[in-house]
User: What shape does this take?
Amino acid sequence: MKKVLVTGGAGFIGSHTCVELIAAGYVPVIVDDMRNSDDRILKGIEKIVQRKVVLHRIDCGIETELEKVFREEGPFFGAIHFAAYKSVNESVAEPVKYYANNIGSLVSLLNVSKRHNMNRLVFSSSCAVYGLATSLPVDEKAPATNANSPYGYTKVVCEQLLRDASHCDPDLRVVMLRYFNPVGAHPSALIGELPLGIPNNLVPYVMQTAAGLRNELTIYGSDYGTPDGTCQRDYLHVVDLAKAHVQALNFLNTASSERCEVFNLGTGRASSVKEVVDTFVRVTGAPVRSRMGPRRAGDVPSIFADASKAHKALGWSCAFDLADALRDAWAWQRTLDTDPVAASTP
Ligand code: UFG
Assistant: This one.
């Protein structure tokens, strides 16, 4: 039995990854203090996979607590580390909170893993490490140390920490996955994204506007040098992203010259804000009130992935497109419309 520790396994990407891990024969052990999730996600995972899933409701940044999980559940085949704060805006307002949590939880995991000889680690990184990319599409060789926000810098620091740790520990193997813009939900509509409060990200805001929870979407900037003037991003379906984690774990079990590898995960396709809204309306038939507004500070005009390294080394590719992701996100949102918790968020 290949047990995999999944920190933040009840979160958006973590929960979808647990489903894919089980489908691939792994046994996830979730560590999540549920500060950014809800019991319904756990129930959703269990309903999809038709079995109970183990959750330890602890903060993985507290080493003594994580130590207990390793003693009770170990040995682990590997770990996937999702647990981190992820709001760019919030990180600008509360940088210390972001550095403490995002770096502290990785330090805790590395310390406990070392004591228990757990040597395979998949790390959740972000295209935020590229900051203002100068050449598109972005591949892994692009400079990845000039992030645009404290959130992005926490990923830069964690990546460096992992490079340094793997450099001096010949047994440690690490894969760092740089996600572009994960969107969508499981096609079953049993799990999906649960934004806390007013969403910062485009797709959750579109969903809540279409659902009548928000009045209108503000499109941040229509005067960029892109074909329709709105920003372009690389939106990938969360199920495709989740599958990449399973492939990364498999990869860690193969012989490779590099002890610490990094992969971009994106579709390679740039979609503008306007295209996202138009595609959503086309595939769901649900109207979205929107207006053009000023640019949002810190936004880059366009960024999308060259993910050919992941295609070659992991055998990974995307099965879903933007329309699939938006259709699935909407199906999930509709299950929330009647949920008093989700509907009562400000
Ligand atoms: N946008 C709007 N209106 C909104 C929300 C977003 O027009 O209400 C626009 C943004 O200006 C941007 C695009 O939609 O052009 C995508 O914005 P998101 O906030 O959804 O995503 P970002 O690309 O800003 O951020 C994402 C992740 C971060 C990560 C970052 C790296 O959410 O975790 O990519 O670039 F750090």
In short: The first strand starts at residue 2 and ends at 7. Residues 54 and 244 are 22 Å apart (CA to CA).
